[in-house]
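Internal QA ticket QA-208
Title: Verify multi-chain structure generation after dependency bump
Assignee: T.L.

Test input:
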Amino acid sequence: MRRNPAGVAGAALLTMLLFPIYWMIASSVTPESRLFQSPPLVPSTLSLDHYRALFDERDFLIPIRNSLVVAAMTTIVVLPVATLCAYALARLRFRGRALLLALILAVSMFPQISIVPPLYLILRELRLLDTYPGLVLPYVTFSAPLAVWLLTGFFRQLSPELEEAAMLDGASRVRALWDVVLPLAAPGVATAAILTFLYCWNEFLFALSFMLGPDRYTVPVAVTLFRGRYQVPWGQVLAATVVATIPVALVVLAFQRRIVAGLSAGASKG
Amino acid sequence: MAAVRLEAVAKTYPNGHTAIHCVDIDIGEGEFLVLVGPSGCGKSTLLRLIAGLETPTSGRIFIGGADVTLLPPQARDLAMVFQSYALYPHMSVRDNLAYGLKVRGTDPAVAAQRVADVSAALDIEGLLDRRPAQLSGGERQRVALGRAMVRQPQAFLLDEPLSNLDPALRAQARAELRRLHRRLGVTVVYVTHDQEEAMTLGGRVAVMRDGAIEQVAPPLDVYARPANTFVARFIGAPAMNLVPATLVGIDTPADAVAGIRPQDVTVGANGQLHAIVDVVEPRGHDYLLHLRLDSRDSSPFLAVVAGLAPPPVGAQVFLAFPPDRRHLFDGRTGTRLT
Amino acid sequence: MSRHVAAIEQEERLLARWLVAPALLFILVGSLVPIAATGWEALHGHDLRLPWLGRPFVGVANFVEAIQDPRFTSALLHTVTFAVVTVPLEIALGLALALIMHTAHRGRALIRLATLLPWAIPTVVAALVWRFMFDAQAGIVTALLRTLDVVGESFDWFVHPLAAWVPIGAADIWKTTPFVAILLLAGLQTIDPALHEAARMDGAGGVRRLVTITLPLLRPALVVAAAFRMLDALRMFDVAYVVTGGGPGTATEPLSLYAFIVLMQRLRFGYGSALSVTVFLLTFAFALMWVRALGRSLVGDRT
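Actual output:
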């Protein structure tokens, strides 16, 4: 009896959380004709027309490729940078440590729009607009804080005795970092990689500002700019959203526990 | 193997806490020295100072005659066994053992030979390909020891290596350590909070309190002639009884304190002290009696009584003890008088 | 005395500098320098469509223009109101979700999945789906409300200046509640269950325990979650752009979107920079208030 109110509320919340996703998928396989006529909750006829149009007419593979490349490049840069910085923050004593922490936190609070003007002008000067590197710079800057935060919490949890043992064994701090700490940091680094990938895949404003042509649009931009044409082709738009969601869903499915653990660990350290 | 010498070593942390006040000690080659004391006395800090994991704020540390005070741990050629063993979890036992040799660029053939010798000596040959997580507590402890032995360092530092073991295993491990030390003749600095462990293992025992060494001597000396009341009560269980010396008929010096170990007390019809039996604890092959003395002193007087029939609770008894087992301490400073 | 300590600590400091340098470089080049540059740009007149006018220094003229610009003041109002309305809702719903996740036994995996998916989905995707669900013709929400006679036959959310906020709010709340829930769940898990057991033996019921034990102990996590959400709400862009494009007209246009339009569509970089700076100042002011309030409450708690 006591559990029922929680159970009902729980079911309601769950429905609210999952329904839009279900609806997105269901609508994407509903033929165009039925879409605008108060479609039933469960589609009666299924059609893959929208998906076909997505890849044939609109060549949706291109935005997918762009997003993957940018995400990969960003992750490759962020991981070593963030890992080394996090190790220093967690283990070493140095002047300006508190300031650095504050800076990193501050950067994650910046409104993205505030740095668009100069970045746009600089990238235009350097002819990096509409290129991959042009987008990777702001991406690294804005995804590094989360990675550093996560990894710092992770390193703090590793027992310092392991590095001490390595040092007594004759390893310099750097050697100990390489031989002992980094291998054990693999789970944390993996989580940081996942979160960085998610950030890049989802990012919109910078991509919208710095990628100018359809050839370089990332997935979020491509999906949104469908609307610019005639009447909104909802079928295709929804098919595109499903495609945009699949990688994310796969990552989440595969790494649920890791992600929650990573976010919680960072959070509980404050 | 060389000696370890600490000269006026002190350590104060930036937050103002003084962990080590002023320690001078000379550890001989091949000696097994035990640092023992209650938690917070600074014994682990002292060990870490010797290891180089902490730097003293003043004083000097010598290893093998060389001044190593400013040297980092890597350069001191010491081996340490941590309380948690600190085995590298991602490496096999073999790689754990060989790591120190690999880092110092030892010839792989030599390294392999040493690993083989040490694992044979410690009976861990069958574990070489396993990971630390797959080992039992006792096995991990031996691997940690092996990792230290393989390096053939100038001295071994052990930080409470037995405290994570089951009590049953502990006795066995203790005996093994003694055997190993006898065979290898290495210099060992051993930290423990367990005074019994200190007594059974140490060639010399250094009793510490609040960042200073109260007494350094072979175990039997520390037991039979404690330098002050702190050492007297810390070493030996149950703790030594301390009573005003006047109760046992000693008037000078004034305010002196007399000490007598529970095991040295005879409970019977004759004796210098009158007491009433308060609690009788059967311990198996003897009894521990808690007695109340006539004086206002409310702390119980302990006596160990062998035999089958201890006096019952409430009985009035007399306590006797031989004068050569009686210790005398200054009432104010606690220092030994005899 | 500290001669010894200093020598070895020096090495540590040197190593630390090397390890930290790359991250610091990115922060400087990627955000600090640009922010300063934006501030500098805001003091100039710079219209990319009129390059022959050059880039004269105009002092605070752009900011004066902003204050007198009704579209700016509306956007500012929109932003603040949006933040003030959605954040408490997100916290409350997030708390409910976290409590459910905390006490659930069966279906834990499903709940966790249900919580992670909205969080991980791109914001624009979430916005598009909700836009679709509220669509006048194809939207299921609209259809449902029509069936229940709550709205008329020809009702279109996106035509009403106030109603248009509902789909925006719905999308934002749906997307971000899970994140709040995860943060709060971490906080819940640090509360010693023995406290609740003791309270139960003292006779406290569920609600009472929630109010007197859980919420006070959860306070740090709540504060952190609210701060994060508030900052995100003040710089909100994606949702408004996708769901309404700022419309009808400019009725649902937040500050970030207005700044974006001025910059990227009207190409007025001077004025657009000034608008960007105000967004920055807005978040900065909030962060400052928060830190001060936090400091005070932390000190006050030490009674």
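Spot checks passed. Residues 147 and 192 of chain A are 5 Å apart (CA to CA).
Status: verified.
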